[in-house]
């Protein structure tokens, strides 16, 4: 036990005309406040025994502290979704993930979650998918686990829980997509797109802009004279402003797009802004007989084409909007052409080296003969 206090009594123990009492502080919601527990007119030895029994809890500020209401997963999820709607570009994805998580965790206290319980959730998700004749990819389950981790992290920040109940949760290993188009495939895809949709695909292929950045593009963001598209922080996934360069081909593309009276959007269909061109894109791929290709893969195509053209990685990232090099590398696809080109470069290097050695040998021989 600690040193006696000024009254000659052990720490946390006091006495007045009403007898002995415990005097300490409790921690609640990040605040410290004083608490007193009356023991009454009892002998000092008995008061010391009571103090000894609860000393550790008192020292930690937990003894007889008012219990905080146990927040449920649903309550924490609601708090997270409010944050997601206000701050995140991926709010729609978060809604899908939270809906799946609610079906299993629901009204459970958030602090009762464990890594084993999350494993039970994953088994539950896979079983439900099999019942519908589907299979869930590791990437889908990873998005849901990432959402769960964020919900828990937000609850910690908001002091709704004291510890992370799912700490140490492991994610599934994901295989990055490795699909880009050849020049012939892209032209075939473009030919099978609807006329109003062709500029959308062309812009994505040439610049690597994200689908939402393109469909939400407004005329006041396009400066054909300066040759740039300016994306504001609220328009990008990373919430950072950036500029997209426009060459003569893209300037000509924008000049041919008709402006719809009363609409600020660049891309329209029947007088309305494009919402989600996913269906139109899939149909174009089917007509062009291009398989295993998604709209987002056009971003991979753009990054790969920039790199093959000799553009520096930092410049490509400033155009594509990648914040980290690790994520950027996933979009730069090394294909068969790159590997063959690498072998050709090595061959040319060896040939030049052998040629140099041959010239050097001839020089030595001529000097000896001469």
Write structural notes for this entry:
It contains 14 helices and 8 strands. The protein is mostly helical. The protein has 3 domains: 47 residues, no CATH class; 85 residues, DNA polymerase, domain 1 (Orthogonal Bundle), CATH 1.10.150; 149 residues, hpI Integrase, Chain A. A hairpin with a 2-residue loop joins strand 2 and strand 3. The protein is elongated, with a radius of gyration of 33 Å. The protein starts with 12 loop residues before the first strand and ends with a helix. The relative contact order is 0.07.
Q: How many individual domains?
A: 3
Radius of gyration: 33 Å
Report the portion of residues in β strands: 5-15%
| Main pleated-sheet profile | 3 strands, antiparallel
What pattern of helices and strands is seen along the backbone?
EEEHHHHHHHHEEEHEEHHHHH
Q: Compute the number of helices.
A: 14
> How does the helix and strand content classify structurally?
mainly alpha
The largest beta-sheet arranges its strands as 1-2-3
N-to-C span: 101 Å
Proper CATH architecture of the largest domain: Orthogonal Bundle
- Name the CATH superfamily classification of the largest domain: Intergrase catalytic core
Q: Could you report the average pLDDT, rounded to the nearest whole number? A: 85
The helix content is 40-55%
């Amino acid at each position: 036990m600690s040193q006696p206090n000024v009254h000659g009594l052990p720490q946390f123990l006091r006495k007045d005309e009403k007898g002995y009492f415990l005097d300490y502080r409790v921690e609640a919601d990040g605040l410290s406040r004083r608490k007193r527990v009356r023991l009454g007119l009892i002998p000092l030895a008995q008061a010391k025994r009571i103090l000894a029994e609860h000393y550790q809890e008192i020292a930690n500020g937990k003894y007889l502290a008012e219990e905080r209401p146990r927040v449920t997963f649903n309550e924490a999820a609601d708090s997270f979704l409010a944050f997601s709607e206000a701050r995140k570009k991926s709010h729609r994805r978060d809604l899908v993930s939270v809906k799946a998580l609610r079906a299993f965790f629901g009204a459970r206290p958030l602090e009762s979650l464990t890594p084993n319980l999350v494993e039970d959730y994953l088994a539950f998700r896979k079983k439900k998918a099999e019942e519908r004749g589907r299979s869930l990819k590791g990437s889908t389950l990873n998005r849901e686990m990432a959402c769960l981790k964020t919900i828990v992290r937000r609850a910690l920040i908001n002091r709704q829980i004291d510890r992370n109940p799912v700490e140490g949760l492991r994610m599934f290993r994901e295989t990055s997509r490795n699909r880009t188009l050849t020049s012939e495939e892209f032209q075939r895809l473009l030919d099978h797109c609807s006329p109003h949709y062709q500029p959308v695909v062309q812009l994505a292929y040439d610049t690597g802009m994200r689908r939402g950045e393109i469909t939400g593009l407004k005329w006041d963001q396009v400066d054909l004279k300066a040759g740039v598209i300016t994306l504001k922080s609220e328009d990008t996934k990373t919430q950072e402003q950036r500029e997209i360069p426009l060459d003569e081909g893209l300037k000509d593309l924008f000049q041919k797009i008709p402006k719809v009276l009363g609409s600020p959007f660049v891309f329209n269909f029947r007088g309305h802004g494009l919402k989600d061109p996913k269906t139109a894109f899939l149909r174009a791929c089917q007509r062009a007989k291009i398989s295993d290709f998604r709209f987002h893969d056009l971003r991979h195509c753009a990054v790969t084409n920039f790199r093959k053209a000799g553009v520096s990685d930092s410049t490509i990232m400033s155009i594509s909007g990648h914040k980290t090099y690790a994520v950027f590398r996933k979009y730069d696809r090394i294909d068969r052409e790159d590997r063959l080109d690498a072998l050709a470069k090595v061959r040319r290097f060896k040939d030049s080296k052998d040629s140099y050695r041959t010239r050097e040998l001839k020089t030595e021989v001529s000097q000896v003969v001469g």
